[in-house]
């Protein structure tokens, strides 16, 4: 019978508890009208999943399958699917990582209807840590042909989050100087790849010099270690002489990012904030007001933005960075080791699970353009 992974509820306080993984067997689902049956080949971890295991995330379900990133092959369709969906049978697809946000650029289309990320959510039974998944045809997008299964699973959530933060919010353009903080995480790396492909001058921060060097090999123009007190002054020296300022900062940490970057941002520059891993609060300075700096909050994004992002990845031949892969959905020890790497911040790229331990990841034979 098909396998499915959930989190198991145990007693403990938020932030102190650590829910174990639980492997279940389920019946193979059958697609209904307008639905696709997908055999999942790979899934990937996000910090959200670590927060769920620590009970630091709202609306947790212990019955619905875990994880939000998924890549698979359409095995069959239900009745009444569109001709375009019928053409997906036998082809790889990416699973949209959220539900309830279709196209509005401002936020979820209907504030009275729930929007949620899939995976261990009380608001949807969808999740990618399982062998089979049924989804409405609109919630699967044809995967770029150059991606392997591991790369495909690495893309959805980080790619969508990064795309909205960089494109929809920061409105990045070729020739602009963009600072991406915390390089090494999935979202930051996707922002780096997108911005380089757009022709931006990208600079990065990290607590690790090795990660900065890896980012430079991917096209970053420079980088600084944020643990150093004068990193903002160091970064200023690296900016182009004919454009000695930042146009935008794409940040997932929070903390003192406003105080540090406001000196470097141009008047009217943008801080696009997609998270606050350092602290749920950050200071807003009068200096930022006087420079007309815009602070824009950014979450994952809409289905329309997801489709646009996937089309850009296909056009530019972008390959998401995979840090480590484990094989087998039943390899609970290996999956737990991925979570430990995430806790310690060791990864440079995404942490991926190939669902079938025996499967050869043969996708993505074309060479990346980046």
Which features characterize this protein?
7-stranded mixed beta sheet; 6-stranded parallel beta sheet; 370 residues; disordered C terminus; 24% strand; alpha/beta
- With helices defined by DSSP (H or I, 4 residues minimum), what is the helix count? 11
Q: Round the mean pLDDT to the nearest integer and report it.
A: 95
Taking pLDDT < 50 over at least 5 consecutive residues as the criterion, the unreliable ranges are: 364-369
* CA(first)-CA(last) distance: 41 Å
Largest sheet: 7 strands, mixed
Q: What structural class results from the helix and strand content?
A: alpha/beta
Globally, the shape reads: globular
- Please give the number of β-strands: 17
- Determine the strand fraction and express it as a percent band: 15-25%
Helical fraction: 25-40%
**Element-level helix/strand string:** EEEHEHEEEEEHHEHEHEHEHEHEHEHE
Radius of gyration: 20 Å
Describe the structure.
The chain has 370 residues and is of the alpha/beta class. It has eleven helices and 17 strands. Strands 3, 4, 5, 8, 9, 16 and 17 form a seven-stranded mixed sheet that branches. Strands 12-11-10-13-14-15 form a six-stranded parallel sheet, with helices on both faces. It has a two-stranded antiparallel ribbon with strand order 1-2. Helix 4 crosses helix 5 and helix 4 crosses helix 10. The longest helix is centred in the middle third of the chain and has 14 residues. The chain is globular. The C terminus is likely disordered.
